[in-house]
């Protein structure tokens, strides 16, 4: 006989739970041959900076000014190196006068970057404001940034000093004689076809030691 009761259904299975199971990877031995590098990304191209025209113009202006300063013609520098009183003779007969011989060594220095040619060089000598005489030399050439020495001999025969006669004798007795000199140089400066005329005058007060024929003191200034 078949039972009217059926077997009860099986209970539903419990909800399935997901479980992640993994096995950890064993640590790898440290290898010194491996280097980890960071990721490198090319930097963006910088934008070109605008040119600083103020600085460029200033530099160009300074260069031009320096070039003009170097090439601009300048008058030569003059200096009396030696002034020797080599001969003095006093004539006591009427008219009373003095014979004087002076040897002058003048240094002409060219401060320009091109040569200098002078046409004439005139040196005059005076005593206590009274002109005694002068001597004029010939042409000469001075190289660029160089110097030249010019020797001149001034022979003064029977110079009448009148009121200054006593002062001159006193100065000779003391061994120091003050002279006034004026040097006038004319010529041309330049290079190739570019020539610049010049004329310069130098006035000096020179105190000469008549015992050892040396210049004790001199004070010079340019005359215009």
UniProtKB/TrEMBL annotation:
InterPro entries: LEA_2 (IPR004864), NDR1-like (IPR044839)
All copies of domain Late embryogenesis abundant protein LEA-2 subgroup, residue ranges: 105-199
Residues of the signal peptide: none
Gene3D superfamilies, sorted: 2.60.40.1820
Source organism, top-level taxon: Eukaryota
UniProt keyword terms in alphabetical order: Membrane, Transmembrane, Transmembrane helix
Segments traversing the membrane: 53-72
Localisation per UniProt entry: Membrane
UniProt key word Transmembrane: yes
GO process terms (BP): defense response to other organism
Protein known as: Late embryogenesis abundant protein LEA-2 subgroup domain-containing protein
